[in-house]
Specification:
Blueprint lengths: L5 H4 L8 H11 L12 E2 L9 H10 L1 H4 L2 E2 L2 E2 L1 H6 L7 H14 L11 E4 L1 H13 L5 E6 L5 H7 L4 E6 L10 H13 L4 E7 L11 H14 L2 E5 L15 H7 L12 E6 L12 E5 L2 H10 L7 H11 L2 H28 L3 E2 L7 E5 L9 H13 L3 E2 L1 E2 L10 E5 L5 H56 L1
Helix pairs in contact: 6-13, 7-8, 7-12, 14-16
Bound molecules: pyridoxal-5'-phosphate.
């Protein structure tokens, strides 16, 4: 008899995926420019470390915020005792204003419809608990963030059914792919409760188009199901086309208020990527649905944001001069890093999916596979991990249905480290090409001999035959 529960020991957590295995290998031998220059470079972690100096300089200029002082007076005791799971009103207000600013103030958000959570991880799981029973399903476009297997399925018992997107149309979500996924769920006897998208997409680094959003809205409307839009990367959109939030499309179609459809649209957000603060654990659910807000608020007791974090960030985000400069500057830096990676890879003969957002590129290594299979993808991933010493995430860990795509992160390291990583990948590509040429040469050396031998045997046998005929 097991000493642990079935939940604790079942493997739907996804810990065995190569996404997490790559991290384990990295931890055994992490790159450090002085202490371990031949170590593994971590390129499997979507962290934004490009704008820390902006946050640090704000902290230096606003010492009262970190010292828990307001108008010169300490509010330490107040914060130490604060335990209202609705969250600090000042923080909720500054967070919704920040969300609106990221969306160019084309939409506004009501703080009463916001539920605070410990990051998007907790927000997504809470929404699953609120919207689906164990054994019911959510449809997710592939490829998707590997952590969703853990966040959406593990503790809730909810199932994920893939909406299969393909490279033939740059992995866009089509009406037929949506319908196919819905039918697939039915074949598996799963009741579909909703669709979950990430906009901008992790791992693609692309924004969801207005057309796609319209298809999605029509689809969930027709099927009478929910849609969750995880917009954790909304502030990372550094190039055109710009970011369009699902709320904006609802507003354009006058579906925003009254309609029962808007009650089925939920947004997930977090400061882990846009502000680069995953350690602070700050996330949120935004929903027009009062029942969802009320249930999720009760559940948020399991994953609250500490009151000192809320206080510090409410001070920071209510500084409009800071937020507007931060948003602009951070995007500029992301774009320059993105361009560095894309052009470095291009020099190595590698293409990326054209992207305009995120902290990563979706890299096409199909031409380096020994065959068009996921085994070959794993083989290549291992060579990249152990020979080039780069931890990148294979497409299979993101449930991509085409082997040969990899997610490569670019914002969690210095420029020098990124350049080194590019040199290492180029060296590996050269080695793979050299191996391939050697194999080809060996084949062509072997085959003429085989041919001449065949000819010789043929000649011999035909002369034998002639002799026999003559006999
Ligand atoms: C799409 C997506 N959703 C949610 C998360 C979890 O983020 P958080 O740190 O806010 O829990 C991530 C983290 O990488 C992500 O990429």
């Amino acid at each position: 008899m097991s000493l642990l529960s079935r939940k604790a020991t079942c493997n739907s957590h996804g810990q065995d995926s190569s996404y997490f295995l790559g991290w384990e290998e990295y931890e055994k031998n992490p790159y450090h420019e002085i202490q371990n220059p031949s170590g593994i470079i971590q390129m499997g972690l979507a962290e934004n470390q490009l704008s820390f100096d902006l946050l640090e300089s704000w902290m230096a200029n606003n010492p009262d915020a970190a010292a828990f002082k307001q108008d010169g007076d300490s509010i330490f005791r107040e914060l130490a005792l604060f335990q209202d799971y609705h969250g600090l009103p000042a923080f909720k207000k500054s967070l919704v204003d920040f969300m609106a600013e990221i969306r160019g103030n084309k939409v506004s958000f009501n703080p009463n419809k916001l539920v605070l959570t410990a990051g998007s991880t907790s927000a997504n799981e809470t929404l699953m608990f609120c919207l689906a029973n164990p054994g019911e399903a959510f449809l997710l476009p592939t490829p998707y963030y590997p952590g969703f297997d853990r966040d959406l399925k593990w503790r809730t018992g909810v199932e994920i059914v893939p909406i299969k997107c393909s490279s033939s149309n740059n992995f866009q979500i089509t009406e037929s792919a949506l319908e196919e996924a819905y039918q697939l769920a039915h074949k598996r006897n799963l009741k579909v409760k909703g669709v979950l998208i990430t906009n901008p997409s992790n791992p693609l680094g692309t924004t969801v188009t207005r057309d796609e959003l319209n298809h999605l809205i029509n689809f969930v409307d027709a099927k009478n199901i929910h849609i969750i839009s995880d917009e954790i990367y909304s502030g990372t959109v550094f190039d055109s086309p710009g970011f369009v939030s699902i709320t904006e499309v609802l507003m354009e179609r006058n579906l925003e208020e009254s309609s029962n459809l808007s009650d089925r649209v939920h947004i997930v957000y977090s400061l882990s990527k846009d502000l680069g603060l995953p350690g602070f654990r700050v996330g949120a659910i935004y929903s027009n649905n009062e029942d969802v807000v009320s249930a999720a608020t009760k559940m948020s007791s399991f994953g609250l944001i500490s009151s000192q974090t809320q206080f510090l960030l409410s001070e920071m985000l209510s500084d409009k001069k800071f937020t507007s400069n931060y948003i602009k500057e951070n995007k500029k830096r992301l774009m320059s890093r993105h361009d560095m990676l894309v052009s470095g890879l291009r020099n190595a003969g590698i293409n990326c999916l054209k992207s305009n957002a995120g902290l990563f590129c979706w890299v096409d290594l199909r031409h380096l596979l020994s065959s068009k299979t996921f085994e070959a993808e794993k083989e290549l991933w291992k060579r990249i991990l152990f020979e080039a010493r780069l931890n990148i995430s294979p497409g299979s860990s993101c449930h991509c249905n085409e082997p040969g795509w990899f997610r490569v992160c670019f914002a969690n390291m210095s420029e020098e480290t990124l350049n080194l990583a590019i040199r290492r990948i180029k060296d590996l590509v050269d080695t793979i090409k050299l191996d391939e040429n050697t194999r080809r040469q060996r084949r062509s050396v072997r085959s003429p001999r085989k041919m001449s031998l065949t000819k010789w045997v043929f000649r011999l046998s035909s002369s034998h035959e002639r002799e026999a005929d003559q006999r």
